[in-house]
Amino acid sequence: MSNSIGQALRFTLFGESHGPAIGAVLDGLPAGIAIDLAAVQAQLDRRRPGGNALATKRDESDTVEIVSGWREGMSSGGPLCFLIRNSDAHSSDYNADRPRPSHADLASWYRDGGKADMRGGGRFSGRLTAPVVAAGSIARQILLRRGIEIGAHLLRIGDIEDRPFGEPVEAQRFGALAASYLPVLDEDARARMQERIEAARASMDSVGGAIELACVGMPAGYGEPPFDGVESALSRWIFAVPGVKALEFGAGTRLARMKGSEANDPIAMAEGKPLPAANRSGGANGGLSSGAAIRLTASMRPTPSISVAQRSVSLSALSDAELVVKGRHDPCIVPRAVPVLEAACALCLLDLAAAFEGRKAFS
Amino acid sequence: MSNSIGQALRFTLFGESHGPAIGAVLDGLPAGIAIDLAAVQAQLDRRRPGGNALATKRDESDTVEIVSGWREGMSSGGPLCFLIRNSDAHSSDYNADRPRPSHADLASWYRDGGKADMRGGGRFSGRLTAPVVAAGSIARQILLRRGIEIGAHLLRIGDIEDRPFGEPVEAQRFGALAASYLPVLDEDARARMQERIEAARASMDSVGGAIELACVGMPAGYGEPPFDGVESALSRWIFAVPGVKALEFGAGTRLARMKGSEANDPIAMAEGKPLPAANRSGGANGGLSSGAAIRLTASMRPTPSISVAQRSVSLSALSDAELVVKGRHDPCIVPRAVPVLEAACALCLLDLAAAFEGRKAFS
Amino acid sequence: MSNSIGQALRFTLFGESHGPAIGAVLDGLPAGIAIDLAAVQAQLDRRRPGGNALATKRDESDTVEIVSGWREGMSSGGPLCFLIRNSDAHSSDYNADRPRPSHADLASWYRDGGKADMRGGGRFSGRLTAPVVAAGSIARQILLRRGIEIGAHLLRIGDIEDRPFGEPVEAQRFGALAASYLPVLDEDARARMQERIEAARASMDSVGGAIELACVGMPAGYGEPPFDGVESALSRWIFAVPGVKALEFGAGTRLARMKGSEANDPIAMAEGKPLPAANRSGGANGGLSSGAAIRLTASMRPTPSISVAQRSVSLSALSDAELVVKGRHDPCIVPRAVPVLEAACALCLLDLAAAFEGRKAFS
Amino acid sequence: MSNSIGQALRFTLFGESHGPAIGAVLDGLPAGIAIDLAAVQAQLDRRRPGGNALATKRDESDTVEIVSGWREGMSSGGPLCFLIRNSDAHSSDYNADRPRPSHADLASWYRDGGKADMRGGGRFSGRLTAPVVAAGSIARQILLRRGIEIGAHLLRIGDIEDRPFGEPVEAQRFGALAASYLPVLDEDARARMQERIEAARASMDSVGGAIELACVGMPAGYGEPPFDGVESALSRWIFAVPGVKALEFGAGTRLARMKGSEANDPIAMAEGKPLPAANRSGGANGGLSSGAAIRLTASMRPTPSISVAQRSVSLSALSDAELVVKGRHDPCIVPRAVPVLEAACALCLLDLAAAFEGRKAFS
Asked: With an 8 Å Cβ cutoff, are C68 and A13 in contact?
């Protein structure tokens, strides 16, 4: 298991769905950085189950308990550790003998011989994204002081599409987007997305979707290519979010169909500075931020936990067997993943900023 | 810059397009592992410029010179370092004052104040993928002894499509695919792709494309989630390949449109073992290999170096300026990226295998 | 701050002396490893303040609270996180304006501008060694199943010396040593050490000492030189223990006075295996374990917290000022450091064992 | 093998004693840093064999060949890779069947089953310190621009002692020390050390010694404790230098005999700044630089390669056997290790400086 990521700002995740608590350690914050815990809690509330009729009925208060590294509104200089208690777990819903299709259950059985604690998905549960959101909120507060803002919306739920961000990205709408459980740019899309999710629930099924994310204000020249270039570093974070199965930067898969003369972003002077005059590259070239907004789209599979009968096996009998998944599940996980992706990006980009600053030691 | 990647098998890349040499260090190979250097050279020849009428006219012999870590056909126990000399560089073609659109030129100028050696793309050049191919060939030789094989084909060049791999993946065709400059499953696609590339060259333009890659024989349960899960670890490698702008696992972006009942891969007994009976997940669930083939599609932007006039700026004058890129460039980089992606995957998966084996120390 | 160490077995430390809790995350344990929590607690009790008349009067129960990664006697497969609550902190004893000589106070002030939480030593407190002991106890349980045992004794308290371990190391005495607050091989030394510590307390002073540690049963050939060779990897851990100021392997500083013919360890057959027939090298050559016991001596400075008046400064007035340290302190920290060093070695050596096993992926 | 070290400034070592070349990659230098290659060569010449009658007769020119990352006197922005060719290797001198006492030979045999290239010590050879010296020279040039200087002298050769550095450290003598093959503060010690080394050679034996090193100008508050605190980070580097068996900071082992009132460094105002008024702690408290000079002493074992007959075994026959080591060896390796330790410290401290600067991203 590789539960740590980041260099100067090191994030270490722990916890399991049905254990006592989940949480994280955020190491690298110097002492004296103002951290608004209410804002952390507000981000957590965006992701929280039980908060919305469209989500799982598992109801967790998801209150952050600071264990170390924070004192009277500021970082204390030591690693910041926080817990989120698990309270509303129904372990009896989990049938360890019948692996759920497209979950980690079967792979985990091969890996650990059935000895892992897989109740509620164990360490693979989407619940483990809560600590990412909490730590990411701290990163966002710091980035914001540097003029860097992150926003996202639902680009797709099943066959329902929102319009993409414009260019330049309309960052003034980030606040309103963050306030909505179904954040969209085209208000008409919201109701139709809601219908689609309710239909999935009604049929004991689930539905996938896609999130478009933008980061504005990132200076040009950040990134540690090749292996921690902007896209590499972000992708490592984003594919760690359960359910993400595709990631596109800028025009993404459409670039494969283009000619160079269509795909290239011209360079032009803007307010005295040379900058890209278009953004099909998604804000990064050669692994370095280009000065344009960082733009990416993450596509997520439908929640694999569905209540219709599915083909599985009995691991004890080694024979085919039918599975009906019990428990409380999200018919669509995508809306709750929006703050998670924002948080993951914030943690990643702040770490790249620290690497950039570190180079000043050499001159 | 982050030029190292991997834990047990650590790859460190060095070199610049117009410097004396490029190369890499591969650290972690125990002594006594048979390494066939002719096979390494053969993989390099697949990627080599000058070998095909469709590629750049830059002609490099790309001969591997072993500096350390290899002796009489075997790894010696120390880090393996090799060089590939640069010989056919035309530095005068590069105009440092006019950044090329959608290249790293402008971002690098912001980062380093114009002090970086950007001739021929400098450290951002696609030429830096040659050491990946060489090291990856060694990893492939080792994986093959464990029954793990990697193959790839051109899924798309511009608007021309090949058919995707079947399920199960037809690994028996990997050898023939690797032998072709334009590897396709549907022979009809090859000629049309060739035409499309030649048309791009004729119009002083370029064209993008997509590569589908499969890895068969990977046991179930490998991967170090969350942050080095199969998708995260592979994506970090693959987005480090210049030009890759989108990455999909399994059904990828199409999963966002599906219902759970459509997307889930049923589990069934096969030859006495429980395994996924479909593979929309692309061979990984929860960051662990599922036992099905690992399947991914990487979409690449068209080569940004095109010879038609483009809008740029003069960095010295800080004014808009027209740019006509000189030099020898690939009208389509995608075919040459096929062995690069295969190599990157091999290096990544072998490192995950070492992590898996390392756990045996605990029991 | 670098609060994480280890590759396959990654240890992340958190907490501050007067914050809510201290603890650690131990990542990399596969599922199903038996972990005896009572044994963990027993090791903690060896280090615990309040347990002995010779130690600080700060009384902490140091009870381990498992947050994740453990279930019904076994590792669950996720990262193991545990907390130890701080309960008996007297924050008013700490005078932030007058840095304590030979403590981190002044350096921290330069680093963080006085914004760090330095109450009780903050993140630099010796209290942070408790999570090392707890995690190390788990590592020791695993090593023991592989026949690897670690023991230590007080080689010196001030001018009072114990005799060193013999060769071969008398591992049969490890149990008795671990049961004593003043573990010595020469029983006569114990009473005299106790007197020396009591004399230090009586004079409101403190006294230093040295610990000799041995690890028996480590197979030959382990270690990841050069930069994680046995000595490098262990030294990084051991110098992280507050108060350690010197580290010697084998004959240590005395080797500098020797001739090669005196210092070399002859090789001879022993029970059918070639092994060192002496151990002046301390069980490692070239960064690899030699097959002999790993032997090291760590020298510790006297506790810098003493109650006699000392020269310091007022940081607010920027003028010289006298300091009288209040609070409850150990007149000799060395006995309590014994289980800490043992634990640090266990964590380090288990990680090297995992690296060794990982190499099997390549053959 | 762990041949990489450092975070922001990452050093990767490669090569074997009798392979084609040795060298290193230094990753993390931004573009445009002036690098004086003549100064690099000058440092290498300090370490070079063949340059002095007291050293091995192996004669290597040790000329640095830059492969990447350097152009016209400046770093180019990519990783700097350089080679040093091996030219004067006598491989026939090495008897693979009879492991040399106190060398890595036997441990390597256990590890790799005799398959490693151990000619001339292979990857364990002291020759691998040459790339450390070359890279370290670059680090020293950069540190010097920040007012940080490193110097060292021979504190001991066998039973011959030099006086230690004074407090404050006499940095004005660093230049003269670096110019001498036997750098000493007390001129009388030099001739006696020379005699002792010549006597060792005459008797086909070797002799150990100790090096005292000081770093002046390091600001207070640098270091990444606990696990990359000043002492931990330096010790990891220094124990990677072959032959080092003990490391002491400040008063080192003598601190174990002291009382706190003797060992503590008072704090006093000096030129308007609060600073330690003594330096028994060796320039670091709690893993942070204290503002005083960093001071350490490394003790080195005598060269294990001696020409008198020694007890060993035949690995093929698995029986005791006598060994007479052939080849050309240093009767005392300590003088040649002086520039190596200086270089290792420079690389380590520059990396800590980058971590310090990186924190500015957070405020």
From this structure: no
